[in-house]
Structure formats: C-alpha cells, structure tokens
Amino acid sequence: MIENVLVGQFVETSSVFHRLDPRSKLISIFCIVIAFFLIDNAAGYLLAGLFVFGCITLSHIPWRIFLKGLKPILFILSFTIVYHILFTKGENLLFHYGILSIYIEGIISGSRLVVRIILLVLITSLLTLTTKPLELAYGFEVLCKPLKKLRFPVEQFSLMLAITLRFIPTIVMELDKIIEAQKARGVNFEDKSLMKKVLSYIPIIVPLLFTSINRAENLANAIDARAYGDGSGRTRYKTLRFETRDYIAMSISLFMVGTFLILKMLGG
Amino acid sequence: MLTFDNVSFAYGQQAVLKNISLQIMEGEFLTIIGPNGSGKSTLSKLMNGLIQPYLGQILVDRLDTQSPQNLKEIRQIVGLIFQNPEDQFISTTVFDEVIFGLENIAVEPDKMQSIAEDALKKVGMLSYKDVEPHKLSGGQKQRVAIAAILAMKPKYIVFDESTAMLDPNGQKSIMTLMQHLHDEGFTIIHITHLMEEALKATRVLVLNGGVIVAEGAPVDVFHNSRVIENNELDVPLPLKLKGRLSEAGIVVPKQLVTLEGIVDYIWTSN
Ligand SMILES: Nc1ncnc2c1ncn2[C@@H]1O[C@H](COP(=O)(O)OP(=O)(O)OP(=O)(O)O)[C@@H](O)[C@H]1O
Ligand SMILES: [Mg+2]
C-alpha cells in the first residue's frame, strides 16, 4: 500500500514518453485535452481514438493498467449514458412505453459523451503513468515561474507539494500504528451503524492530527536551519532541458488542436 | 568562535534562558546536559538564529544572529541536527536530502553531485543514495541528516539529543561519528541526557532553570557531588565504579573515565 502511494501511478518502462521533459508533457496533454473537447463528429472520434491507441501502444504500459484507471469512473459513465438515453428528446423514436420514450439521438449523444470522457481519462493517465509525481511537481513549478511576477509563491508551493509526497508513506504507517494501538485498547472499527462508525474514527484522527502538527513545527525548524530562507536565491540541481523529442511532442499536440479545429468547422 | 553575551530568552511570559554568557572555541567538543525543560534546545536554536534573544547578543564568527542578512551565512556555518530522525528528512531520497541544503546556499549545480557523494561517503550512506526515507532505520536517517549538514561545509555542528530516539547500536554509531568529526576539526556541540556520552567531551556545561550552573572538564563536573545532586544528574557508570572502588580502598587516577581504562589500570597497577 505504501509503495503505491509513493510512486503515485508511475509505471517504469523505457518508452519515449518516460524520457520526455515533464514540461513538454504537461503542455502537450493540455493541448490534447483542448483538442478532444473540440470533437463533434464521427471522423473526429475515430481520429482521437486512433491517436490514443497509438500513444498507449508506444508507452509500453499494459492495457489493463489503463483500464484499471477507468474503473473509478464507471459509475459516472453509466450514469451519463442512462441519463442521456432517458431524457434526450429527438426525431427518431426507438422505443415507447408509458411515460418512457427512448430516441436514437439519446443513445448517440450519450455514447459520444462517454467515449469522450474515456478518451480524456486515458490520455491524462498517460501523463501520470509515465511521470514520477516529483518530476511532475518540478515541471509544474518551472512552468509556473511567470506567476512569481504576480507574487504567487511558486517555490514554496513546490516545496509544499514535495513534502506532501514525502510524508504520505510516513503518515500511512502512522495511521496503521494508531489503528493497531486503538484496536488493542478495544476500539471497535467493525461496527455496522454509520454513527458508531464515524465515532470510532475519532480516536484515530485526533492522535494523527496531534502528531502531524508537532511534526509540522519540527519540519519548519529543519527547513529553516538548513538555510532555505524564503526560497529565493536558490540554485537547482536538476535543470530541465528541452530535447528534439520534446519539440516534436509539442508540435504533434498543436497539430492535433489544429486538425480538430478544422474537422469541427468542416462538420458544423 | 561562538559567543553568547548576556543572553535572555522567553517564550511569551515564560523566561527560559536568563543572562547566559558563553564562549565556544573552535575545535571544542562541548556537551550540554541538564534536566528536562532547562532550556537546552532553546540554547541550540539561538545558535543559528532560528529564534532571537530578547536581551543580549549572539555572535557566530562575529556575525550577529539578529541581523536578517547574516542568517543564510550563519546557518551554513552552524549546522543543527535534531532529535527526531523522521521530522528532519525533507526530501524523497537520500541523495535529494543532501542536495536540498546545497541548493539553499546556492552551490553551483555542476558541483553538487560530487559534494553530496563525498558527504554521504563520510557517514557511510553512499550506497543508500537512491533509497527513500521510509526504508531507512532511525540511525541511518540521522547519518543522512549529518551528511546533509556536512555537505554545507559548516564549522560548528550542534546535535540536539540526536541519539535519544535511537537503539543502543544507533546511539553508539552516531557517537563514534561525532568523535570522528571532532578529530577532523569540526567544533561539536552535543546536547544529551546520557551521562556516558557526556564523558567524551572536552568541556561539559550544566544547564538548569535557564542558567549555567556548572561547567568544566567532564571529570571535574561529575566529581562534584553537589552539582550532581542539585541538578538531578546521573553519575556516569565509570565514575560510579570509581567511587565504589575508592570506598574499597582502590584509588583510580582522576583522568581515567572509561570502563576499559579503569579495568586496564586495576589489572596492571599491582
Ligand atoms: N515553542 C515553545 N513555545 C512555548 N514554550 C516552549 C516552546 N519550546 C519550549 N518551551 C518551553 O521552554 C522551556 C525550555 O524548553 P527547551 O526545549 O529548551 O528545554 P530542553 O532543556 O531542551 O528540554 P528537554 O530535555 O525536554 O529537551 C520548557 O519549559 C518548555 O516548556
Ligand atoms: Mg530539548
């Protein structure tokens, strides 16, 4: 469990996506997401589908891992499709019974939306599956640098993100320890009634909060003691550099936006 | 030289340190002992400007800790190792942890790798370079904390009960490391509640109720029964043994303070 949280969803393979600069990945995914929102005809869906299929194949990450990422949204997907089928009115009646009438248009618009969501989830999982959380955070920090002019504390924000990632395993371990300790004292976590269930978590949350506050103070001291200052005037060990592959990736993404824009204009 | 000149400190209304004057010379191994709440940690935080006195002045190699523009340099000169190994590990890997301090003092990126690796080698943690903190023992984390400080090339290293949360093996290994660093020329300031550890120092300082109540060579301090009783201190085992031996008529020379030394003396002296 601890392993899972630390690496996020990252899966190590030697694909080109793993070698891309996190910044170009963030920019590209942003473009692709915009492109996918422009889709409104069958040709567009086909092209987008092929594109996602190609990317996933290139990533060398097994399909089942991508499909696992779809599981949590299964409910939303089914809800979307049922909602559209039941409530979209159209010209071509497919089925009628009492107050229930189902139109072909409903089925079509529902499936379109579902396909679009699936494509978006797959392509964004590609980002988190091929980039370590810390790299992503660093890429994000560098991209946000211009915000510093607006007094947004970019460095501190990035340190905060990094520390959060660092302490997730620690806190998970602590949580395990507290739960064990409270079980040993006879706290019952298996109670069925909701109220009792909620109450039984208080003896876990309170100690966890207490140790976390204590830890935050110690951490602040440790950071200060090592001359972090206000985060300005630091040098960075890792310097990000765009390679040819990064420019190619970003060009392809921009090209996708253009293509979908043209498809949309032709179609509508 | 690290100088405290009539320093007083309070948390709100509660006076924690009263009129402390103290000089720490380069090359010293100073141990600070005293009961809980006597102000030891407060003293250590004053040494690198984490907190500021309300009276008096603290100078680190002539740099006043109360001038904000001195703080970066002071924190590079005075390294602080804390008690809790977990809460001073900021980064996600051992190597990054050492890099963090180097980035803060704006070391050139090209030089960072070799500096960090040298520091890790010194504490014997180089082979753990890419390991995440939750896979390390407490003692290993403390070693990394020491490497992270060493990489910043400090002059003074302050250990605030840095062995307190470790098992006996961890404690011993950190003490040995401390000794090595002192031999290499670092000035060591060691806060501890373990009297056996205090014997290793060149000077011991006893703090109680925010004032320095005794100070001197470890043997002198621990032989002063008034100091021991008034400050709830425990006599280190070797000295206890010497006391019992002298009751039995065997007088061991004053300067022998290790068990090995005493044993050697007894079986060679007759
Ligand atoms: N952040 C704080 N806010 C308020 N009071 C504090 C704070 N930190 C310490 N104190 C109080 O200041 C006094 C001295 O604390 P300090 O931590 O310096 O003692 P210490 O000698 O290090 O004790 P210990 O052996 O327990 O580590 C104590 O009475 C403590 O309660
Ligand atoms: Mg303390």
TrEMBL record, chain A:
- From which domain of life does this come? Bacteria
**Membrane topology, as annotated:** Multi-pass membrane protein
Q: Where are the transmembrane segments?
A: 26-53, 65-87, 247-266
Q: InterPro entries, alphabetically?
A: ABC/ECF_trnsptr_transmembrane
Q: Is-annotated flag, keyword Transmembrane helix?
A: yes
Where is it located? Membrane
Which key words are in the record?
Membrane, Transmembrane, Transmembrane helix
Q: What is its main location?
A: membrane
Coiled coil spans: none
How is this protein named in the record? Energy-coupling factor transporter transmembrane protein EcfT
**What organism, scientifically named, is this protein from?**
Viridibacillus soli
Automatic annotation (TrEMBL), chain B:
**Location in or out of the cell:** Cell membrane
Q: What is its main location?
A: membrane
Does the UniProt entry include the keyword Mitochondrion? no
Official protein name in the record: Energy-coupling factor transporter ATPase
Q: How does it sit in the membrane?
A: Peripheral membrane protein
Q: Which family does it belong to?
A: Belongs to the ABC transporter superfamily.
List UniProt keywords, sorted A-Z.
ATP-binding, Cell membrane, Membrane, Nucleotide-binding, Translocase, Transport
Does the record carry Cell membrane as a key word?
A: yes
Pfam families, A to Z: ABC_tran (PF00005)
Q: Could you name the domain of life of the organism this protein comes from? A: Bacteria
Q: Which residues form the ABC transporter domain?
A: 2-234
